[in-house]
Amino acid sequence: MSVNTSIKMLITSTDKAKTDMNHPQAQGVLAFCYEFGLGIEKDFKRAEQYYIPAAERGNGLAQARLAFLRKYGRPSVRIDRTEAEKWQQKVKDQGHHVSAMYHLANALEKGAGCEIDLRGATYWFEKAASYGCRSSCERLKRLLVRECMGSDYTGSEFVCGHYAPAA
């Protein structure tokens, strides 16, 4: 069975059974599938419709993704920076959801729904990395190297753990 077939089966069973029973994990997974077109066509409005109840019931990933959607908007999804900040704060308050920590750090680093806060981004990347999030480790490394090298540092001269000689 292919991955897409498995995802379609999950969506079919999840969409009706779990979401009708107000199951926040199922709602969050289904929303994620709609947002990124995993096994189904992308549908940002449907993603939003499933993220909202999942986020309201405390699902950290749904809160983080909803914060992102509210910050940047997508076709048929309105931008609301105040609401984005509210969801980011809820993610922060949970303090234990690795994906949420990563998304919060990303938002703080880029100023998505909040002021740019590199110190805060570093804190949340470190926290997510301490739970084994490899993406956070990589982002943290780049953030720290950029801090040491200066804000205009692109990383192009850092190759395989060593600085490349100047051309």
Terminal CA distance reads 51 Å
User: How many distinct helices?
Assistant: 8
**Portion in strands:** under 5%
Count of spatially separate domains: 2
User: What form results from the Cα inertia axes?
Assistant: globular
| Percentage of residues in helical conformation | 55-70%
C-alpha Rg (nearest Å): 18 Å
Please outline the major beta sheet.
2 strands, antiparallel
Q: How many strand elements?
A: 2
- What class, by secondary structure content? mainly alpha
Which segments are poorly predicted (pLDDT under 50) over 5 or more consecutive residues?
156-167
Strand order of the largest sheet: 1-2
Mean pLDDT: 77
Order of helices and strands: HHHHHHHHEE
Short summary of the structure?
Helix content is 68%, strand content 2%. By secondary structure, it is mainly alpha-helical. It has 2 domains: 83 residues; 58 residues, no CATH class.
What's the topology here?
Elements: H1 3-20, H2 24-36, H3 44-56, H4 60-72, H5 81-94, H6 98-110, H7 118-130, H8 134-149, E1 158-159, E2 162-163
Antiparallel strand pairs: 1-2
Could you please describe the fold and organization of this structure?
The chain has 167 residues and is an all-alpha fold. It folds into 2 domains: 1-83; 95-152, no CATH class. Helix content is 68%, strand content 2%. The protein has 8 helices and 2 strands, in the order ααααααααββ. The chain has helices spanning 3-20, 24-36, 44-56, 60-72, 81-94, 98-110, 118-130, 134-149, and strands spanning 158-159, 162-163. A two-stranded antiparallel sheet has the order 1-2. A hairpin with a 2-residue loop joins strand 1 (158-159) and strand 2 (162-163). Residues 156-167 have low confidence and may be disordered. It comes from Paraglomus brasilianum. This is 10746_t:CDS:1.
